[in-house]
Design goal:
The chain is built from five helices and six strands, in the order E-H-E-H-E-H-H-E-H-E-E. The protein is an alpha/beta fold and about 210 residues long.
């Protein structure tokens, strides 16, 4: 069995509470740096033989202390594990709800099950699954890898693995900052997963634990 650990990035410096999605320039906050430095210890002593992450700054900063533990490994940047696209990117949280009331925005809200305001859930899950299986092939049987990604891509992948609907209430995602969802792969199939929150004590208050 190979194990692919998919970790969410740490807390981001975002005092204006912008929906940053794929925008460049959003780095980890001091709290985020503390989170990922402590969460990296989760991987100590594990047979990690492959590292990859989303190309965004916050994920590259998150994987840095993990890469320091496995200095002989290079980090692969993988567009397939990037954050989901969203038409409301760049708006300030709170203003998004007001914008949604504008008739000009209604075309983006016609199908919340897809969702029509961004990248389709099924497309997100598909690219994530492909990246996970690629990592599994690289590490082989009994090998382990770390992928650093983002909350929505990780969560819809877990929903797919569990056989649940991909549409969901974002407030109920079990994927906190610097959390780790570890997928078990046997004979080319994902057979299970485990979920860990190694820095739960550092999580800021708030339903999304994200900004």
């Amino acid at each position: 069995m190979s194990i692919i650990h998919v970790m969410r990035h740490g807390h981001v410096e975002n005092p204006q509470r912008v929906l940053y999605e794929r925008l460049p320039g959003f780095r980890l906050s001091d709290l985020g740096q503390e989170m990922v430095g402590e969460a990296a210890h989760f991987f100590e002593g594990r047979p990690i033989s492959h590292l990859r992450c989303s190309p965004l700054q916050r994920t590259q900063e998150t994987i840095k202390p993990i890469a320091a533990l496995f200095a002989d490994l290079e980090v692969t940047l993988d567009e397939r594990v990037i954050e989901a696209g969203n038409v409301f990117v760049g708006q300030v949280m709170g203003s998004t709800a007001r914008a949604a009331r504008s008739p000009k925005q209604w075309k983006y809200l016609v199908n919340p099950l897809r969702p029509s305001w961004g990248e389709a859930y099924v497309e997100i899950a598909d690219r994530m699954i492909k990246a996970i299986f690629d990592a599994s092939e690289i590490v082989g049987e009994s090998g382990e890898a770390v992928i650093v990604s983002h909350q929505l891509p990780i969560w819809v992948t877990r929903l797919l693995v569990e056989g649940r609907h991909l549409w969901h209430d974002p407030r109920k995602r079990q994927c906190t900052l610097a959390s780790i969802t570890s997928f078990h792969i046997e004979d080319g199939l994902i057979t299970g997963f485990e979920y860990a929150e190694p820095v739960r004590h550092l999580l800021p208050e708030g339903p999304r634990h994200g900004f």
